[in-house]
Write a structure and sequence with these properties.
CATH class: Alpha Beta
Low-confidence stretches: none
Largest sheet: 6 strands, mixed
CATH topology: Rossmann fold
CATH architecture: 3-Layer(aba) Sandwich
Pfam family, one: ABC_tran
Number of domains: 1
Structural class: alpha/beta
Number of helices: 7
CATH superfamily: P-loop containing nucleotide triphosphate hydrolases
Strand content: 25-35%
Family: Belongs to the ABC transporter superfamily. Macrolide exporter (TC 3.A.1.122) family.
Distance between the termini: 24 Å
Keywords: ATP-binding, Cell inner membrane, Cell membrane, Membrane, Nucleotide-binding, Transport
Shape: globular
GO cellular component, one term: membrane protein complex
Protein name: ABC transporter ATP-binding protein
């Protein structure tokens, strides 16, 4: 089976005044189906830039990005949107839940964009949230949830459309250590149960060690 993600010779530079800063200098990376890979590096090393590239969230990159077998780097805006919708899920350091919607509605919405019926979307949302221990919090809005609960809802939302690849950028970075351990364990368990692959950016060696493989970003190159 082909890789879920294959990145080849990915480059990204920024201009700052008269200087050119090479953030990514020929990155090569593959992620196999069902594999959870930790992307390790200190703050400012370019982890978020790499995830933005793989997530097709901005342009200005050079190189190849194949997602679920499709060359995605040069797609039109509509094509990139389609790949994000059909193949990718996202979890960020901050949950980015919609404040006026409750937990189950936040997980329903991305499914509705894919034309899932309302009944099926609700059933899927309730199943994911219950699996994450939030069956009693379905009707609560983000402001009524703890930080750990908010991140669990964000995890459920990311997996709602059964993505081939989940991209997580410091998904527990806004939580205390005990809560971070619990949320990460739930995230890893659910990703594995769902059969998705994941690329998880972190600066935490201890958390990275819990994943299937660790790659390190240093000097704009992965090792």
């Amino acid at each position: 089976m082909s890789d879920v993600l294959n990145v080849s010779d990915l480059r990204r530079s920024f201009t700052q005044g008269d200087a050119t800063i090479d953030v990514l200098r020929g990155v090569h990376l593959s992620v196999a189906p069902g594999e959870i890979v930790a992307l390790l590096g200190p703050s400012g090393s370019g982890k978020s830039t790499l995830l933005q590239a793989v997530g097709l969230l901005e342009g200005g990159f050079e190189g190849s990005i194949r997602i679920a077998g499709e060359e995605a780097a040069q797609l039109s805006n509509d094509g990139r949107t389609r790949v994000r919708r059909d193949s990718l899920g996202f979890v960020y350091q901050f949950h980015h839940l919609l404040p006026d919607f409750n937990a189950v509605e936040n997980v329903i919405l991305p499914q509705m964009i894919r034309d899932v019926t309302a009944a099926d979307a609700r059933r899927r949302a309730e199943t994911l949230l219950t699996t994450l221990g939030l069956g009693h919090r379905l009707d609560h809005r983000p402001s009524q949830l703890s930080g750990g609960e908010q991140q669990r809802v964000a995890v459920a939302r990311a997996l709602a459309n059964r993505p081939a690849l989940v991209l997580a950028d410091e998904p527990t970075g806004n939580l205390d250590e005990t809560t971070a351990d619990i949320v990460l364990a739930e995230f890893l368990r659910l990703v594995r149960e769902e059969g998705s692959a994941a690329l998880v950016a972190t600066h935490n060696e201890r958390l990275a060690a819990k994943m299937d493989r660790v790659v390190r970003l240093h000097g704009g190159i992965l090792a």
